[in-house]
Fold this sequence. Notes:
By secondary structure, this protein is α/β, with parallel strands linked by helices. It has a single domain, classed as DHBP synthase, CATH 3.90.870. It is about 30% helix and about 20% strand. It has seven helices and eleven strands. Strands 1, 2, 3, 4, 5, 6, 7, 8, 9, 10 and 11 form an eleven-stranded mixed sheet that branches. The relative contact order is 0.22.
Amino acid sequence: MLHEPSLRTQRLLDLSTDIMSQYFRLHPDNPQPRLIKQAVQIIESGGVVALPTDSSYALACQLDNKNAVDRVRRIRGIDERQLLSLLVRDLSELANFALVDNRQYRLIKSVTPGPYVFVLQATKEVPRRLSHPSRKTIGLRVPDHAITLAILEELGQPLLGSTLILPGETQPLNDPEEIREKLEKQLDLVIDGGACPCEPSTVIDLTGDEPVLVRPGRGSLAPFGLEETA
């Protein structure tokens, strides 16, 4: 018979998450393979990492590790109604997670890799906790950053990610030293790949007949026939 953990046990479990993050400095264009392997080992053991992307820094974890996913949501201060994104190395993995037609595929292919998150209809293979609870949608992103792509290649599967915007803030973090200062007891690893653009990714909903802007960010809106915001 399974038992709920006692209060004392739960408090010990909570204390065990009060960690001091590791800090890796990686070359932004030619990341060191040894450090990439170590970063992947941390992710595979359930770690939550801060890593650079072509927009800003992001939080990332293994997509099938519920505890790690919950930690990402706690750090961000968001609930299950807020979509997290699947970070994939290329579009060959798209069909495993999203239902797309030829028009959607051509549009996504024309701007990836790049600073976009696409909201797409999730396949039945996507765990319920990773898709929007009422719309059954998933966010998908192909980042254009050598470090993140190297991690995805070594890991051999997508990461679950979220722009690193702290609760109460409107701008993402883009300085790894600041991330370590603010979050070193909540993360397992901070990857220093230098400063990133201080903009979130652009989020585009492609589930309807026409693209819909969900969140403006670094990516241009011109490929989607949408007007740029001031």
